[in-house]
Amino acid sequence: MSNQIKAYKACWKQAVDAAEKELEEIYNQFVSNDGELLKENSHNLNDEEIKSQLNQTENDHYFQDNSDDQEDQQDQNDHQINILTQKTKEDFIVNQEIKRELLREVPYKEEKLQIYKIIYSNGDVYEGELSKDLKDGSGTYYYANGEKYDGLFSEDVIHGYGKYFFMGGHKYEGDWYQGEKSGMGILDFKTGDRYIGGFYKDVFDGDGIYLQKLIGTFQYRNGDVFKGKWKKGKKNGHGEMRYKDKRIVVGEWIDDKLQPF
Q: Which helix (H) or strand (E) is 184 found in, with range?
């Protein structure tokens, strides 16, 4: 089983690396465009004028109409609600098993993995490995409401690496701890928004146990990108907001609110 888990982790690392590379390319494009604009505008300005211009741009942004910020914030808040999961051990226990069958035996290195199919009274279906009559190892859980989880289980609970497909079109790929999104993850929303970074207790958070202050990046569907620190599902700490119109704000956030310069 250890070899199988290593194989899952290797695939997961490739997915994370690819997603981070994609976001890095987006940021490099922002920086390149900003650099060219600054170079073009600086021909007839001295250093003090350039510095004054940059400071004025930042302050103007803070006090200007914040309709873009409100739109981004509403998207972010809606997403936090849409991706909450309650797939704990207690949730599985209440589903009474009504049928079980051995589907196949799969050779895996020096092991033979037994793949079972279990049908529950509420319409849920599980296909995967068992240990001591508990879901343990690799498996796929099909929920009666149309959602699906594909990944690792431990003692009857979603735990380890896995992919979760939400009702409505959202998809999470990453680490799980005792039925909750905890660790490093990639969350793609049906709307086109995307978050890459730390999770803790099912929400965006880079300060959770073992996360070592992970940075989280949220790419909004309108082209805005925020990269910084998150805690309890909100922007908290140092961050950088790059708007689709090339405006850049670097500062400190508390509970999703940018603090005055």
A: strand 180-188
Average of per-residue pLDDT values in the chain: 77
Question: Cα angle at 196 between 85 and 179, to 5 degrees?
Answer: 25
Closest CA to 233 of 200, 196, 256, 204: 204
3: burial class by Cβ within 10 Å (0-12, 13-18, 19+)?
Answer: exposed
pLDDT of 147 reads 94
- Asked whether 225 and 26 are in contact (CB, 8 A), the reply is yes
Counting as low any pLDDT under 70, the low residues of the chain are 1-94, 208-213
> What pLDDT does 64 receive?
41
Measured CA to CA, the distance from residue 199 to residue 84 in angstroms comes to 11
Q: Are 169 and 190 in contact (CB under 8 A)?
A: yes
Question: Are the CB atoms for 93 and 79 separated by under 8 Å?
Answer: no
Confidence at residue 68, expressed as pLDDT on a 0 to 100 scale: 58
Q: Which residues pair with 105 in a beta bridge?
A: 114
pLDDT at site 259: 94
CATH 2.20.110.10 residue ranges of the chain are: 168-260
Residues 201, 84: Cα–Cα separation, whole Å: 9
Distance CA(166)–CA(195), nearest Å, equals: 15
Q: CATH says 168-260 is which class?
A: mainly beta
Residue in the block written with tokens 């739109």? 71
Both structure tokens of 46: 């001295």
**pLDDT on residue 59:** 41
pTM: 0.70
Helix, strand, coil share of the chain (percent; to 5): 30, 40, 30
